[in-house]
Each structure stands twice: as structure tokens, then as C-alpha cells.
Design goal:
This protein is mostly beta strands. 6% of the residues lie in helices and 41% in strands. It has one domain: 6 Propeller (Neuraminidase), CATH 2.120.10.10. A hairpin with a 4-residue loop joins strand 24 and strand 25. The longest helix is centred in the N-terminal third of the chain and has 14 residues. The radius of gyration is 20 Å and the shape is globular.
Length: 434
């Protein structure tokens, strides 16, 4: 997975000469300097001392690919994972273009073997393109999350079906299921497969779209389904799956969590921290929710996200994701703010804050901006890029990433592909060790 030079960069040759091993050995200041030089575009560095956050040392924002100017495609759903390579760690990111509301191109992948300084040109995942569907429709795949599965040395890319009719999203979606493809150790991709769940409660839809998941010590995968019958609010349940490197099979499903407002609970993301499992849930009642579990199947009653003083966070049907450090658990999210009053679903800016694990609330003093709102969210909201679909990746003991694809739905569906490097003051023992 040798990367080609980023089109926005003129330093690809230098990156390949240095190689991944020398990158791992340089000091932090030199690494950041090389990163900024190699990418050459859209870099902003913020030091933790400016905001008084003890665990987060710095935050560096990088534009990986330009799409706002209309000269390139708008890449969306960028989600990365780390896996071992021949000469050091490698990053693999799945992504796809967006041309309208829920209207996505085929799933692509791009790779980096220099810790994200340069990326290969995106190329299609052969089995995750569009295929014919009944009555002249097309079936695509979206909301894909790739994760490395160490026991089988494969990458499991899990998303779900989406159906199109003509050049648009089909408003009358047929039943939808999770679909996946496996990247094998030799770099080849498996065929496209459906994650089967023979349960009438999910007869219309069941999915783990955009969701974080956990690989258990025995190689099983713990995730969560959002599911429901047609025209009923969706519920969420913890799901334990077996995975042999080719096929994913449901082993056990826990009791369901319910929220009867509108479409119910959506897009669950799950993580493991400090001996417990944590679940965050998108909802449609101007809230997001959190629940905890000892086994990832039986969950506590969900409680809305609040600040440590008890004030609720106001969210509008938007996902949240976990950022884990061995010394702290963080949430990455969007919410209502005075600056984004008229932005669609308040999907900009993107924030992070530390979770108080005893109260399951967010510590307001730790909140910081991962990606700022650009433009005027009150008087010109159509000029503000939305950032509601994003992903979090632990990369190094001193660095984690947040990746997001901007989207200006009323300005030609344009947007840039962005990466934020979060630098840690103390080593993150949860980072990959290859």
C-alpha cells in the first residue's frame, strides 16, 4: 500500500525517502514540521497551554484534499484505521464522494505508510460499488467503518445498503441490511456480503452504520445494531459477533434500548474503557444519549448528555463518537451554540470534551474545538460547511486523529477532506502497538 504523493503536496519524494521507520524515531517537533511541510495546505496548530487542557497537548488541523474550490471531488465519510505493514504501521482510510443528500459514490480506499503525511490516490473497493436492484433501482453502500482485526490480520469494512433511483436517493428505501467486505493480508478484497440477522424486529432495517466497535480478546467483535420495523421508532441492542477473517456471524444480542421520539435511537457507537463498555446514541429529541455496560449486551438506562453542572447538551439528530486515551475518555460531537443558530442540525463546529466517568457527564472546562465553524452560522448558514459525519482513530501513543469530510449542501455539495491530529501530553497506552 505504497502511497502516491498527495496532489496538494510537493514533498512526496521526501516523504518516501524518509520512510515510516525514520518517522517513528524523529522527535515531536521535527515530526510536526515535516508533516506541515509535506502536506503544505490548510494547517492550523493550537497548543494545549492556550486552553488549559492537561491531557491534550496540541491540535493540528490539516486539509488532505481540496473540494471546496470545485476542482476536485467532495470526499465524504473518511474513516481510518491503523494496521501493521512491512516496514511499520500503515493507515487505511475508506471514503466516498457525495453529490447530494445521502447520495454517495462507490466506496474507495486510500493508504498511507508515513503516518498520514501523504496518501495514495483513492481507488474503488471492487465489491463495494453500485449493483442493479429491482425495478430499475441501484444498490450502493455507505457509512462504512474499517477496523483492523488482529487475530485474522484482516481489515473488516462494515457499512450498510443504500438504494438510488435515478440521480438521487430513493425516498422509499427497501429493507436495509449491514454489508461488509474484508481486506485480506495480501491486499485483496473479498466479495460483498450481508451480515445476516434472522430476527423479525429488524425486518425493515438493522444496521451498525458509522458505528465504532470493539474487538474482544477472543477475536469476537462487539458492536450495536439500530433496528426496527417499518414506520416504528428504532431501538438499539448490543451484538456479539464471531469473525473468522472472511465471514461475520451474529452470536448473541442483548436487550433493546428504546426512545419513542420520531425515528428513535440511531447510529450507536461503542467503546471499551476502564473495564466497562460505553455506548453513545444519536436521537431525534434534541439530545444525544449515553449508556454503560459490564458486558456490552446488558446496558444501563440511557441518559441524555449533560454538562457537569447539569445543563443538557442540545443536539439535533447527529452522531457522536468516542476518543479514548488510557488516562481519559472523551466524546467528539456537535451541539447548538450561539454561533451556529441557523446551521443545518448545528453540524458545525466539531467539539471534544472529557467524560466524567462517575456521573457520565461532560466536563465543560475541557471542551475544545476540533474543527471550527468557518463562515457565518447566523446570517449566512448556507456558507458553513457541515461536519456531522466523522471518525476517530488512535494512531500513536502521543497522537490520535479525527477525520471529517466537509459538505456544503447548498453550495454545489462541495467540501474539503480534513484531518485533525490530537497530540497527547502523556502516552496513550490504548494506541496500536505495531
Amino acid at each position: 500500500m505504497k502511497p502516491t504523493t498527495n496532489p496538494a503536496s510537493s514533498a512526496g519524494k521526501a516523504a518516501s525517502r524518509n520512510g515510516p521507520r525514520s518517522t517513528a524515531r524523529i522527535n515531536r517537533r521535527e515530526f510536526l514540521a515535516r508533516t506541515i511541510t509535506a502536506l503544505g495546505v490548510g494547517v492550523t496548530v493550537i497548543r494545549a497551554a492556550d486552553e488549559g487542557v492537561s491531557l491534550v497537548r496540541s491540535l493540528t488541523r490539516v486539509t488532505l484534499r481540496r473540494g471546496r474550490d470545485g476542482r476536485g471531488p467532495t470526499w465524504f465519510h473518511p474513516r481510518a484505521c491503523l494496521l501493521p505493514g512491512r516496514d511499520g504501521p500503515m493507515a487505511l482510510m475508506t471514503l466516498q464522494t457525495i453529490g447530494g443528500s445521502d447520495y454517495f459514490g462507490p466506496v474507495h480506499w486510500t493508504g498511507s505508510d508515513d503516518l498520514g503525511r501523504s496518501w495514495s490516490a483513492p481507488q474503488p473497493v471492487p465489491s463495494l460499488g453500485r449493483i442493479p436492484a429491482p425495478e430499475g433501482a441501484e444498490e450502493g453502500v455507505c457509512d462504512v467503518v474499517p477496523e483492523y482485526h488482529e487475530p485474522t490480520r484482516t481489515v473488516l469494512a462494515l457499512g450498510h445498503q443504500v438504494f438510488y433511483r435515478g440521480p438521487r436517493f430513493d425516498p422509499d428505501q427497501p429493507p436495509r441490511r449491514p454489508v461488509y467486505a474484508v481486506r485480506r493480508p495480501d491486499g485483496s478484497w473479498s466479495e460483498r456480503r450481508i451480515l445476516e440477522w434472522d430476527d423479525p424486529r429488524g425486518e425493515y432495517v438493522y444496521t451498525n452504520n458509522c458505528g465504532q466497535r470493539v474487538v474482544l480478546p477472543d477475536g469476537d467483535i462487539l458492536l450495536a445494531f439500530s433496528f426496527g420495523r417499518r414506520d416504528e421508532p428504532r431501538r438499539v441492542a448490543g451484538v456479539r459477533c464471531g469473525f473468522d477473517g472472511e465471514h461475520v456471524r451474529v452470536r448473541e444480542v442483548g436487550p433493546a434500548l428504546a426512545n419513542p421520539v420520531k425515528r428513535g435511537f440511531l447510529e450507536p457507537s461503542l467503546t471499551r474503557f476502564d473495564g466497562r463498555f460505553w455506548l453513545t446514541l444519536r436521537a431525534e429529541d434534541d439530545r444525544g444519549y449515553v449508556a454503560v455496560s459490564d458486558d456490552g449486551l446488558d446496558w444501563s438506562p440511557p441518559q441524555p448528555w449533560r454538562w457537569d453542572d447539569g445543563e443538557p447538551l442540545i443536539m439535533s439528530t447527529t452522531q457522536q463518537h468516542w476518543l479514548t486515551h488510557s488516562r481519559g475518555l472523551f466524546l467528539v460531537y456537535t451541539r447548538r451554540d450561539d454561533t451556529n443558530a441557523n446551521v443545518i442540525r448545528w453540524r458545525s463546529p466539531l467539539w471534544m470534551a472529557e467524560v466524567d466517568r462517575a456521573t457520565r457527564r461532560l466536563r465543560r472546562s475541557t471542551e475544545r474545538t476540533v474543527f471550527p465553524l468557518t463562515g457565518d452560522g447566523v446570517n449566512d448558514p448556507d456558507g458553513v460547511a457541515l461536519m456531522g459525519n466523522f471518525h476517530v482513530t488512535n494512531v500513536l501513543p502521543d497522537e490520535s486523529w479525527v477525520t471529517v469530510g466537509e459538505w456544503l449542501p447548498r453550495r454545489g455539495a462541495r467540501g474539503d477532506l480534513l484531518l485533525a491530529r490530537i497530540g497527547w501530553n502523556r502516552p496513550n497506552e490504548l494506541a496500536p502497538r505495531w
